[in-house]
Specification:
Elements lengths: L5 H4 L7 H7 L5 H12 L6 H15 L3 H13 L7 H8 L1 H21 L1
Length: about 120
């Protein structure tokens, strides 16, 4: 159980290979950039405000929550499964979440360059 929750208390340097292959594709760049901007703008870091940022990104892009939530889940947890994203991102913290999204965006850019 502790290993499944490592992303809450320990940084990671690699994403789960299967989850990254499926969800950190070039098509995920725009959703991640959009949700990152919305998360960065939150001044009161609560699960409700995180949820509103994720939903706002999906609404702005005209896509379902999964198109934003799944790349975000892999970005902030390194894996394809986690508890609800609003609570997970809130618990991980704003700065750490933003840093992990940046790492995912760099991963996507590297995939684009190799294509």
């Amino acid at each position: 159980m502790a290993a499944a929750c490592r992303y809450f208390y320990e940084d990671f340097s690699e994403f789960d290979a299967d989850a990254a292959k499926k969800h950190l594709r070039p098509v995920a760049r725009q959703p991640l950039e959009t949700v990152r901007a919305k998360l960065a703008a939150i001044s009161d870091w609560t699960a409700e405000n995180v949820h509103d940022a994720i939903q706002g990104a999906a609404d702005e892009l005209g896509v379902g929550m999964g198109k934003v939530g799944m790349p975000l889940r892999v970005a902030v947890t390194g894996a394809g499964q986690s508890p609800s994203m609003d609570v997970t991102v809130q618990a991980i913290g704003q700065q750490r979440s933003l840093q992990r999204i940046d790492m995912a965006l760099a991963y996507i850019a590297e995939r684009e360059a190799q294509a």
